[in-house]
């Protein structure tokens, strides 16, 4: 990505004015349009291939059905010989990872962000998809602190009509992976929704603790995780100060057996969020 690179996407003439990020996924830049509105959009430039095509299709389907702003609006894409460029809504308030590290959040802020996350996940699941890589860095914030779920590079279909199908197990960021995914072999599959739900629990811990993680991985040989499973006092005092209703909800979400894990509707109806 170079400054001043230009693309025509969905009828908009977009010129990159700032590089926002770069990684294995590709590059993200801030672009200014040359139309009458003269607005800013975010451009995501990824390597051309099936994963990029699938990401665009899923994001676009969700964007078209989104009436409450659960995901960044996707304007369109342009395909180049080696790249695909997405044009989407620019959210200028950073991501939740930056926000949590900036300073400790109030109880009201934690609850607000978490409820927005849960409602966004419910929207994604309702339309037959799982995100597959929920984490604070993929949760973008608008200037009014509206949380939007972004980056559908690992998203996939888990339900067609009323028929549910399993999804690849070993996808996502390790510290946010559910135990059934973390312990799976490379080609194994798992139920999709419980994996996303598990990740929301880790994110809730992040929100409560300035982005600390309760454990590095949900494996049998991880001492911190086994302490959690066996209800043994945490040596790092991570849970000190957590309200009882938060701890009760976390026990329901961060449940080792995915069949016993809370569903999205059970989380929404939990006393912690019903007071929000």
Automatic annotation (TrEMBL):
<dbReference type="InterPro" id="IPR017441">
    <property type="entry name" value="Protein_kinase_ATP_BS"/>
</dbReference>
<dbReference type="GO" id="GO:0005737">
    <property type="term" value="C:cytoplasm"/>
</dbReference>
<keyword id="KW-0067">ATP-binding</keyword>
<feature type="binding site">
    <location>
        <position position="44"/>
    </location>
    <ligand>
        <name>ATP</name>
    </ligand>
</feature>
<dbReference type="InterPro" id="IPR011009">
    <property type="entry name" value="Kinase-like_dom_sf"/>
</dbReference>
<dbReference type="InterPro" id="IPR008271">
    <property type="entry name" value="Ser/Thr_kinase_AS"/>
</dbReference>
<feature type="domain" description="Protein kinase">
    <location>
        <begin position="14"/>
        <end position="273"/>
    </location>
</feature>
<keyword id="KW-0547">Nucleotide-binding</keyword>
<dbReference type="GO" id="GO:0004674">
    <property type="term" value="F:protein serine/threonine kinase activity"/>
</dbReference>
<dbReference type="GO" id="GO:0030111">
    <property type="term" value="P:regulation of Wnt signaling pathway"/>
</dbReference>
<keyword id="KW-0418">Kinase</keyword>
<dbReference type="GO" id="GO:1901610">
    <property type="term" value="P:positive regulation of vesicle transport along microtubule"/>
</dbReference>
<dbReference type="GO" id="GO:0005634">
    <property type="term" value="C:nucleus"/>
</dbReference>
<comment type="similarity">
    <text>Belongs to the protein kinase superfamily.</text>
</comment>
<dbReference type="GO" id="GO:0030010">
    <property type="term" value="P:establishment of cell polarity"/>
</dbReference>
<dbReference type="GO" id="GO:0006974">
    <property type="term" value="P:DNA damage response"/>
</dbReference>
<keyword id="KW-0723">Serine/threonine-protein kinase</keyword>
<dbReference type="InterPro" id="IPR000719">
    <property type="entry name" value="Prot_kinase_dom"/>
</dbReference>
<dbReference type="GO" id="GO:0007165">
    <property type="term" value="P:signal transduction"/>
</dbReference>
<dbReference type="GO" id="GO:0005524">
    <property type="term" value="F:ATP binding"/>
</dbReference>
<keyword id="KW-0808">Transferase</keyword>
<dbReference type="Pfam" id="PF00069">
    <property type="entry name" value="Pkinase"/>
</dbReference>
<protein>
    <submittedName>
        <fullName>Protein kinase domain-containing protein</fullName>
    </submittedName>
</protein>
